[in-house]
Amino acid sequence: MGTKRFVDLSIPIEADLPSDPPMMIPRIDYADHVKGAEQMEMFFPGVRKEQLPGGMGWAVETISLTTHSGTHLDAPYHYHPTMDKGKPALTIDQIPLEWCFNDGVVLDFRHKADGERITAKDVKKALDKIGYKIKPLDIVLIQTGADKAWGTEKYLVTGAGMDRESTLFLTEQGIRVVGIDAWSWDRPLPCLAKEFQETGDPGVIWEAHFAGIDVGYCHMEKMANLAAIGRPFGFTVCCFPTNIKSASAGWVRPVAIVDEV
C-alpha cells in the first residue's frame, strides 16, 4: 500500500522583509511567555508569576498585514466588482470549496526571462511537453523560479508572468483555481508600468488579473517549492483560504498531496 507525501507550497508570513511594497510589508509584535505571564495576571486577579509553570504564561502575536500578504488566494472581487461578464464578483468567503481541492498540474516556465510574457501558445506547448490535457477544476500551477528570490528586494521583479490570453485559455476550459510562485500572477508590476509608459496602451495594465472580468477565477500568489512536488501531474492540491467576510483575498497554505508507490 502506497504512502502520501505532503509538500508545503507556501511561504511564511514574516515581518520586515523587503518582498512587498512598503505599505504591504507585514508587522508582527511577538509577546513571549514572560510577557504572557504579565497578561495572565490581568486575567486572573491575585495570581503571582511564581505560581505559573516556570513563572511563564502564554505566548501570543499581534499582526498587521493585508489579505494579500504571504501566500494567498485572490478572489474574483480583487480584480473587479463583476465577473462572468456582469455577475457580482465572488469574495473570498463565497468561493466554492470544491474549487480548492483538485488534481494539480505544474507547468515549468523557469526558462523564461524575468518580466517575460507566458502566452497561451507557451501554455499549450508546456502541456504538450508533459503529455497532459487539462480538465475542468484542475488546479494549474505556474513555475517561474521567482521563489528563489523570496526575502530579497529582487523578488518584486523576478519571474515571468501570465497575460490575458493565457489566463483565458485556462479559465475558458473550466479552470477555476491557478497559482504562481511569484509575487503576481501578472508579469512584475514595474514591467507592466514600463510597457505602459512606452506604448500608452492601457491593455497591458494588470491584463491577467482583469481577465477575471470575463471569466471568474482565483489565483494563488507567492507560492514556493513547486519543484519539490517532483512530477508535473499525478498529485492533488489542497488550498482552502481563510474565511474573511467580503474580502478580496484570504491567506492560504497550499499543499500538494503526492501518492508514493
From TrEMBL:
Any one biological process term the GO annotation gives: L-tryptophan catabolic process to kynurenine
Superkingdom field: Bacteria
Gene Ontology MF annotations: arylformamidase activity
Pfam assignment, any one: Cyclase
InterPro entries: KFase/CYL, KFase_sf
Protein name, as recorded: Cyclase family protein
